[in-house]
Predict the structure of C-type lectin domain family 10 member A-like isoform X1.
Amino acid sequence: MAEGEEEVNYASVVFKAGNNPPPAAKRGEETVYGEVKAQNETKNEDSAGRRRFQHLACCLGILCVILLGGIIGVCVYQSNNKNLSAGVQELNSRNQELEKKNNILTEKIQDMTTNRNELNISRAQWSIDSYCRQPDNKKCQPCQKGWLLTEPSCYAYNDAQPPNQKTWEEAQGDCRGKNSDLAVAHNSEEKEAIKKKSFGTNGFWIGLRVEDGEWKWVDGSDLTESSWIDPPDPVDGRCALFYTGRNTWSSVSCGATHQWICQQKALSV
């Protein structure tokens, strides 16, 4: 070795991997991973918070809907209650009016009943006077005074002279006022009974006229012998007129004025 040169010794140093600090790249990776993990945890916490808020908002919304429904129900109930109260008051008013009308009708019915009873008594007395107090005979008779008996009926020949003669309708009304009808002849015996007691030549209304294209008696029965009427064709507005001494009846206008014959059932004595 030359003079003046220093001796240099080299030694080999070996570092173990476990004790060596991580490379810079690896430390960077660990840092990035840590940051990502922290960010994910933050996002998860935010998402959970939002879900809780949404659930809370949904519950509050449901409660609001329920509360609104309750308010509406209460309002409807109060409105219906007011309407029902008004309806009850109106029904009470109507009921009071009906009670007043019922009382009035009851009084009228009582008055009518009293009048009817008085009328029945008057009619009964009239019947007694008509049938049982004739001056020439105290015994009750089958016909009223002025009526002619042909069993089983009594006949009244109203021989009024103009201007006291009547149309067919007026004559029927007069008979009804005497508890009778214009004379009816359902058979030859009744027809003959009308004929043999008649008199005069002016003609008498009997209870036969045309109704709905058919000859009808006042008791609603049909004319069975069309040969008894001349002409026999039924024409609306025509009525039957009986002339003394004729075997047939004449078809004349019901508006003409004539005498008339009333008929009623004879009293059984």
Q: What stands out?
A: The chain has two domains: 21-140, 148-265. The radius of gyration is 61 Å. The beta strands are 148-150, 153-158, 181-182, 204-211, 214-217, 229-230, 238-242, 249-253, 259-265.
